[in-house]
Design a protein that fits this description.
Layout (H helix, E strand, L loop, with lengths): L8 E10 L10 E11 L5 E9 L5 E5 L5 E3 L7 E5 L10 E8 L8 E7 L7 H13 L2 H4 L2 E4 L4 E6 L10 E4 L12 E4 L5 E3 L19 E9 L5 E5 L4 E5 L4 E5 L11 E6 L4 E10 L1
Antiparallel strand pairs: 1-2, 3-13, 3-19, 4-5, 4-18, 6-10, 6-12, 7-8, 7-11, 9-10, 14-17, 14-19, 15-16, 15-18
Length: 284
């Protein structure tokens, strides 16, 4: 977003202490640069792009001059479907045993009884509707999944896209006129992908103001904020550096311009559950 010229600052420092080993010398020696401030003149614009990269190899590309971010793999919500089979509806009254297994769901596998009434639940669709209602009332399940479906189908959809859960399953025990379903259908595989977490990556700030198409970068800081490491490829500089979780890399110019720092920065997840925060300031 636009900022007041001459208000930009880069804060930096790197220090270590050493214990002298020569005789008749005591105390510690400070090595490095103390906490310092660099004023960045003429800077008029600042923006930040942050994202999560769910899987190894996921990429995020940031055009440093425009602030436009492009994700390499889009998130996809996992969908699981079970189809109730009951040719004559409920043939007797009682509780139909439904079991839902899902990683990350508290108490999984969940045993969820579904009350059926003979003469009332006369079709597979009516029985499925009761199953959907029972599953939708389970707060542990709905913390991660929405419950839906039409007709004889019972459908679970991951609320927030994540890497595919191969254990996800809706099982229905045989009884009361209902056929057994031991394994439900993996309708759509889940893909965690890359999710932008602070903006849409469209080159506009959070107020909807365009960042401009000719940003001269004055400073950039990259922080690996997830639990997995990342590789950062500064294409114009022709080098790649590695950041482990919590690692920070910063570059800043005292005269307010990094003339060679233009074009794309490509960030790649080294492992699952990586995340990154990139802040860039410059002038248009």
């Amino acid at each position: 977003m636009p900022i007041t010229p001459n208000s930009a600052r880069a804060y930096y420092g790197l220090q270590a202490t050493a214990e002298p080993t020569k005789t008749q010398v005591s105390g510690t020696v400070a090595i490095g640069v103390p906490s310092s401030v660099m004023t960045l003149p003429s800077v008029t614009t600042a923006y930040c792009v942050s994202a999560t990269l769910a899987s190894t190899g996921n990429t995020l590309t940031i055009d440093t001059e425009t602030g436009i971010a492009t994700i390499g793999t889009a998130p996809v919500s996992q969908v699981e479907t079970a189809t109730v089979v009951a040719a004559g509806g409920a043939t007797s009254s009682g509780n139909l045993a439904v079991t839902v297994t899902a990683a990350g769901v508290t108490g999984s596998p969940l045993a969820i009884p579904v009350a059926l009434v003979t003469g009332v639940d006369t079709t597979a669709s009516l029985i499925a509707a009761k199953v959907r209602t029972a599953l939708g009332a389970n707060t542990a399940l709905t913390a991660l999944y929405t419950v839906g479906g039409t007709g004889a189908n019972v459908v679970l959809t991951r609320t927030v896209a994540a890497n595919n859960d191969a254990t996800l399953n809706i099982a229905i025990a045989a009884g009361l006129g209902v056929s057994a379903i031991t394994t439900s259908t993996d309708t759509t595989a889940g893909v965690g992908g890359v999710k932008l977490t602070n903006n849409t990556g469209d080159g506009k700030d959070f107020e909807g103001i365009s960042l401009g198409n000719a940003l001269v970068v004055a400073a950039c800081i990259v922080k690996a904020s997830g639990t997995g490491g990342i590789d950062v490829d500064v294409v114009s500089e022709n080098y790649v550096f590695n950041l482990q979780p919590g690692g920070i890399w910063m570059i800043a110019s005292g005269n307010g311009e990094l003339n060679d720092f233009v074009g794309n920065m490509v960030i790649t997840a080294q492992s699952n559950d990586a995340a990154v925060e990139v802040t860039i300031i410059g002038q248009v």
